[in-house]
Amino acid sequence: MPGIASSASTTTSSPTDYIVASCKTTSYPALCVQCLSGYAKAIRKNDRHLAQTALSVSLSRAQSAAAYVSKMTHVRGIKPRERQAVKDCIENMGDSVDRLSQSVKELGRMGRAVGRVMDGSIKVALRRRVVHVAQVTSNALALVNRFAAKRPAKLTEQP
Hints:
Elements (H helix, E strand, L loop, with lengths): L3 H8 L3 H9 L5 H8 L3 H4 L3 H25 L8 H38 L2 H30 L10
Helix pairs in contact: 1-2, 2-3, 5-6
């Protein structure tokens, strides 16, 4: 959605209003606002700061979730098959943490380079492709979550 965040920065009166306006473009706007409002002064109506902060918050939440999931292997009475599923989940969570951490670093480097190196048409083309990938990924994750929600008993069933 080209221009939404930039128009939000010019038409809103405070950093919090900017966050609210920017979060309207997300799949979970209320959660977006809740997670980012505490960082309004650091974000300062700046698109790069907003993206960097959102990634950092995601990384923090992923690290916390990974720590929680890792404790699940020690739950009393857990069946071997459940334990293996939890271990697989731990591995996936670790991969997610690693990727988010790398994304935080890359966005920091990209944010500095994009303003100096890319012209408008290249920047627009790159952004369009990245936004498309993000949207497709969001759709895929929603469908995976929908699938998982319909299959809660499958984890404990024996073949």
